[in-house]
């Protein structure tokens, strides 16, 4: 099993910044993908950004140039630096770790952290 603990959410004004952190613990494979997803009220959960253990990152078009995902493999921690936040970025942000063994994916989710963008 893997446990994920997120932190760093909160209230920020439009144009402001926040940094989310997600620390993973438990049975973690050396090769995995960690990422951030978000879900706004009435909407489906969507991918924000993912990063492999090798450092390859991908972003949703809506956050490119504003958000940066990074990770510290020694700490099994993934970060999301969010700059130039917009009201439409407001959502619950979830951390996800996915690892694969023998062709089967094993996804794990954090409990979510609220990001509120409002003046």
Q: How would you portray this structure in words?
A:
The protein is elongated. The N and C termini lie far apart (40 Å). It contains no helices and eleven strands. It has strands at 2-7, 10-12, 18-26, 33-39, 46-52, 57-59, 67-72, 77-82, 91-101, 104-109, 113-117.
Key features of this structure:
7-stranded mixed beta sheet; 4-stranded antiparallel beta sheet; 11 strands; elongated
SSE blueprint:
Layout: E1 2-7, E2 10-12, E3 18-26, E4 33-39, E5 46-52, E6 57-59, E7 67-72, E8 77-82, E9 91-101, E10 104-109, E11 113-117
Parallel strand pairs: 2-11
Antiparallel strand pairs: 1-3, 3-8, 4-5, 4-9, 5-6, 7-8, 9-10, 9-11
- Mean pLDDT, to the nearest integer, reads 96
Strand proportion: over 45%
C-alpha geometry = elongated
Structural class of the helices, strands and pairings? mainly beta
Please give the radius of gyration in angstroms: 14 Å
Distance between the termini: 40 Å
SSE order in H/E notation? EEEEEEEEEEE
Oligomeric state? single chain
> What is the total tally of β strands?
11
Helix content: under 10%
Number of helices: 0
Low-confidence residue ranges: none
The largest sheet, given as strand count, sense and whether it forms a barrel, is: 7 strands, mixed
Briefly, what is this?
The protein is mainly beta and 119 residues long.
């Amino acid at each position: 099993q893997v446990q994920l603990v997120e932190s760093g959410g909160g209230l920020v004004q439009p144009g402001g910044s926040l940094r989310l952190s997600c620390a993973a613990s438990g049975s973690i494979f050396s090769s995995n993908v960690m990422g951030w997803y978000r879900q706004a009220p009435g909407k489906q959960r969507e991918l924000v950004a993912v990063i492999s253990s090798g450092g390859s990152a991908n972003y949703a078009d809506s956050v490119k140039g504003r958000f940066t995902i990074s990770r510290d493999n020694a700490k099994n921690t993934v970060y999301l630096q969010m700059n130039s936040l917009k009201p439409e970025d407001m959502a619950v942000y979830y951390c996800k770790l996915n690892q694969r063994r023998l062709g089967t994916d094993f996804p794990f989710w954090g409990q979510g952290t609220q990001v509120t963008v409002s003046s």
